[in-house]
Structure formats: structure tokens, C-alpha cells
Design brief:
Layout (H helix, E strand, L loop, with lengths): L2 H21 L13 H14 L5 H7 L10 H10 L5 H11 L12 H24 L1 E9 L12 E5 L6 E4 L6 E5 L3 E8 L2 E9 L6 E6 L3 H11 L5 H11 E9 L10 E4 H8 L9 E9 L2 E9 L5
Parallel strand pairs: 1-7, 8-11
Antiparallel strand pairs: 1-4, 2-3, 2-5, 5-6, 8-9, 10-11
Helix pairs in contact: 4-5
Amino acid sequence: MHQEEKILLSLLKKEIVTTMMRSYPSIDPEIAKWKGQEITDFQEDLRVRVNGQLSEKWFYNHMKSAGESLPRIDVLNLLSQYAGYSNWKDFRHKKMGMRPVPERQGKPVPLLIRIVLLLISVMTLLFIIMRMINTQNYRFSFIDTDTGEHIFDNNLRVEMLMENESPVAYLSDEKGNINIRTNKSHVSMVVKAPYYITDTITRTLRKFNHDEQISLKADYYALMISYFSESDVNSWEKRREQLSGILSEDAIIYQFPDKSTGNGLALYNKQEFIDKLTMPSSGLQKIEILDCRYVDGKISIIRFRIKGDME
């Protein structure tokens, strides 16, 4: 008898005991311990319930001891019906579906695979360590290309260009420096500073030199506009001609809000800006250029504020 058959027969015996206890509640719950009157009571209950008969000898050979083979199929059908099933096939089907699936022990991992996994783990750890070691702090300072002097401007902005990511923005400190922490050996950045031309810079970083210096070209048109706003010029016509020559026809000029007066953002076209800048009473005096953008060599966008706004 196979192991599976032994299990099924054992389950059937338990079902027989359960059915028998409905008529004889005090009967021993272990069928192997039944004898004498208990076997007689079972024979009677079997006859009443399913009109079946089994000899006491058969009971001793199959119920009280583990036989070498299963009982005949007709006897199994009879006992299954007694336990409340249609037949042995029905009992077997339902019990097989309820049996827990034995856990399969995993096959041992071959030594070669374990070595490969260990190497991958070590390499991953080394990569993380090297990445941490290679991450350094770098300080970028900026100088005027013409004068060679350091640019002390805390409004200097940098957009670090990232591969497959949005740019990361940085703002200069009070000394005009940009501090960046990175593990990359090459960086590209867009540098924007008042009165200097916006430029895209690419640098190869050196691990043992954390100070980088970048030269910026002055934006002479922006300087000219700022100069016009601060100086007393009698030749208004000449000033207007100069402004007209450096501004694009569809230029847009933004004046940022005056915090002291609460004025909102002002917007000018080319002619409005020239008129206000060349009229002393207009209020556009001592302006600070924040940003200039060019199209075909002429200014297309200006962002500025009145210097008094910052006082």
C-alpha cells in the first residue's frame, strides 16, 4: 500500500469514528482500540445506515491493524457511504483536495552560483564606497573677463545640467561663489549674472583641486542702460537713438515690484521703456539690470528693478 493510500485509509477511519459517535457518543475515539461490543455496535450501525455487513475478522485485519493493501473497492465504497460520501472515489477526491501540499525543499545552491552572488555583493559594496569617496565639495568663483576681478554678486545663479533630469538651481553666496557637492568628473552649467552675458560652461573636475574659476563676459548693453539711468545726460535725442539701436522692435521689459511702495510688476514695450528712461521725471532712475536676453544681437527681454527697492 502506497503512502498516499495509507493516509487516505487513516482519514476514512477517522470519518467512521465521527459517524459512529453520533449513535454512540461514548465510544472510544481511536478505532484501533475497539473490541467486542464496540465492534458489534459498529456492525449494527453500518447495517442500519447503509445496509452493509462486515465480519469481525475483517475488522481486525483492516481496521485495528495496518494491512499490506487497501480493502476491496466495494468495501471502500461501503465505508465511504457510511462516512457520508457517495463512494470511495468521492471521498478520495474531496480529501485529496484538502490535503496540505508538502513543502518542497529547495535544491542546494551550487558552489559556483554562491561564489558569483558573493562577488556581485562585494562589487556592489565597493561601488557604493567609491561613490561616497568620489563625492566632493567644489567651490566655483567667477571673474570678469576684461578686468580679471572677482565678481562679488549674491544674485549670481547657476543651473546645473543633469543627464535625463531637470536642471538643479544654485544661488551664489554673499561672496559671489557657488558651492556644489557632486561625484561627477564632468559638469555643465548655465551661469546667469546681472550685467554679464549668460553662458553655458563645461568643466572637468579635479579630485584634488576643489576651487574652480570661471570667466564671464560683461553685458555692455545692460551696463549702458544702467549708466543711462544714473547719469545726467543733456543729449536726450542721442540717448534715445542709442537705446533704439540696442533694443529689439518687439522687446519686452519687466520691472520687478517695488517692495517699499507696494507697486506691482510693470511691463513695458520698447518705446515705453525708452520714453521713461530718457525722462528724468519718469521714475526710472538708478535701475539695476537683473537679466538680458538677446535675439539676433539685440535685447529682446530685460528684467530690472529700481535700486531703491533693495535699500
